[in-house]
Design a protein that fits this description.
With about 280 residues, the protein is of the alpha/beta class. It has 12 helices and 11 strands. Helix 2 packs parallel to helix 4. The N and C termini lie far apart (about 60 Å). It has an 11-stranded parallel sheet, with no helix packed on it.
């Protein structure tokens, strides 16, 4: 109790490693014992890492005793029923206003995303490498509080991107390797608040890159392996706030680098495998 209540108000709790029933039971007792002090704090964050099947039952009882604004969860369980139970319990907790959820490579399907849509408090969502099709993203349209979305290595396509365009509060987006294509790139212009975008490995071509021009707040852009060519690179020259750019594997050639000269704020530039030659390097 002394450890928890002695922390400064702006320090987050971070409970990592593999949680056990015993440790969660002890933490619940501590939180109850120290509650008269904890309730006076403006904000607390609980970060629970590696939540698995053996810990979930105790976790439900534990977090219900907490009066926190923000909850960070990393789920390691691959059992859908456990995932659904977690979502149901969190959605019923009206005290938590800010949820950050990581559920990477858990074989989540579109059905799981339908359950996930109940958590409208989510501000950060990381669902890299799952199994849902492009129609599954239609459920994510309800998560309008999202500011960060990582959906790398899933099937998004043009239809999936059309659903996501409703998430206008996004400032960070990772949709690399999602089969976006030139048609899906059409929806990029909706995310005008983005400061970080990973759209690598999507075969956008020069036509797809044209839809990036309005994203002038971008400071980080990964657009590697998109078959841009010199014409595609020309569409990036207005993104003058960029500090980091990965434009490798895009067949730029020497002439393609001409269009990058206006990006004077760059501190990191990846031009790998573009066959620039001496002329391109001089530019």
């Amino acid at each position: 109790a002394e450890v928890f209540t002695g922390l400064p108000n702006d320090v987050a709790w971070h409970i990592s490693s593999y949680l056990t029933n015993q440790t969660l039971g002890e933490l619940r007792q501590v939180s109850v014992a120290a509650y008269h002090k904890l309730n006076k704090l403006w904000k607390r964050t609980i970060c629970l890492s590696r939540i698995g099947p053996f810990e979930l039952s105790e976790f439900y009882a534990f977090y219900k005793t907490l009066d926190v604004d923000c909850l960070k969860i990393k789920i390691a369980s691959r059992k859908p029923e456990l995932f659904w139970r977690l979502i149901q319990n969190l959605s019923e907790n009206g005290r938590i206003k800010d949820i950050e959820l990581e559920a990477r490579r858990l074989m989540l399907t579109s059905v799981d995303l339908a359950h996930l849509a109940r958590l409208t408090q989510i501000t950060l969502l990381d669902i890299v490498g799952n199994c849902f099709e492009e129609g599954g993203t239609s459920y994510l349209t309800k998560l309008t509080n999202l500011t960060s979305l990582d959906i790398f290595d899933n099937t998004l396509g043009s239809g999936g991107a059309a659903h996501l365009k409703k998430l206008t509060n996004l400032t960070r987006l990772n949709i690399g390797n999602t089969g976006l294509g030139p048609g899906g790139a059409l929806h990029l212009k909706q995310w005008v608040n983005l400061t970080s975008l990973n759209i690598g490995e999507n075969r956008l071509g020069a036509y797809g890159a044209a839809h990036l021009k309005k994203l002038t707040d971008l400071t980080r852009l990964n657009i590697k392996s998109n078959q841009l060519g010199p014409d595609g690179a020309a569409h990036l020259k207005k993104l003058t706030n960029l500090t980091r750019l990965n434009i490798g594997y895009n067949q730029l050639g020497p002439s393609g680098t001409l269009h990058l000269e206006q990006l004077v704020n760059l501190t990191s530039l990846d031009l790998g495998d573009n066959k620039l030659g001496d002329e391109g390097l001089l530019i």
